[in-house]
Amino acid sequence: MLTGKTAPAAVNFLRMLADFMTVFAAFAVGLAAYRTLGVGKHDPRIMPYVYLALFAGFVFAGVFRWMGLYAQGRSSLSIAEVQRLFGGYAAGSLILVAATFFSRLGQDDPPSRLVLLYALVLIFPALRFQRFILQGAFDWLHRRLGGEQRALIVGRGEMADQLARTLERVSTPLYRVSRVPDDAVGNMQHVAEAVQRGGIDAVFVVEAGLSHASMLELQKLCEEAGAQFSYVPDLFELVTHDIRMTEVDGVPLIVRRTRGRRWLYLACKRLFDAAFASVALVVLSPAMLVIALAVKFDSPGPVFFSQERVGLNGRRFRLFKFRSMYDGTDPYAPSPKTSDDPRITRTGRFLRRKSLDELPQLLNIFRGDMSVVGPRPEMPFIVEKYTPSHRTRLKAKPGLTGVWQISSHRSADIHEVMDYDVYYVENQSFILDMVVVFETAFYFLSGRGGC
Questions:
Q1: Co-location of 78 and 209 in the same domain
Q2: CA-CA distance, 15 to 269, in Å (whole number)?
Q3: Domain interval for residue 368
Q4: pTM for the complete prediction?
């Protein structure tokens, strides 16, 4: 069994090797497609493409390493890491295209560029699928071989809850999280006993009420117990996802980035939304007609369900869905958690499992009430209870899909996991939108739909 510092090094090497082999395999499939489709000039050679595939494997592995995709403490399944993976893929592709262009100069019979094109189309989805499988295998081995790290959270409140969810999402290392009871957070003796008795590997302090002396005492205790000590600043309203670290003559500073209205991004986003909704409504209209008939004949009541939701800057609008519950059900009651909820109709179970009940929201997107990607629209009575930090999610147009919808906490209520939507609002970009769309398709195809 790998222990200590050898385990992360071995995992990183296996990840790099897997990425290298995935890129090489993409070129092999690209060459096979080139030979099978018969487009372009026939090239019977193999070795030039083998050399190109080997070079591409080294390029992508090197770029990923430079971008920190193999760093410990990251989850290869989180949206931030998929976005980073896409950035590495784009950078590696540009390097590869440039290198291929210059290498062709002076050659009488250079390798076909169609093979490169086919491979580049395949590489990103292949890498995403490979990392999904590999991370699942790593997690399974960690649990079987006892490779989990035991983490103790000392703190209470919203930031402590968010940290617990974050640690559960991290895959390297794999954390098993426990927490000090709220009424014992300030009791250093209780905390010390928890660290020593539980064999804790890492202690995370999220408590502003601890005195300076208590913090130093806890840090010393962690050093003696061989546990890593970490402190989360008590700046939840300020320190979110949109900060950077800087310094002034050696004094460390936390700076919040300020962003103005990015008109080009918003214009491109609206153009994409309108095009997506228009094409989807035309293509899916036969399927939507079948669904409407199934809903109508399955149980009495209207085909569509509408509900008031809160959108951009607090503006209210009517959200449309296919009715998946029996007519007369309270529209503002808590959403079903499981598919066997008695409020759900037979057709509704299928629609909710495949998220097909949300197809009418394409009308909301076409009208401009919603976007393809964004925070999930919430009900008015919940928005009224928002804290100032929660109201950040109202700065973006609500979406059909988003970071929360493709997360591991999708079954939880939206207002219980606000950090997903806050992350999206503070990191909006067209690339992030496209990554979320890709992840939604991946999520759907993998069969991890809703209840």
A1: no
A2: 34
A3: 263-445
A4: 0.70
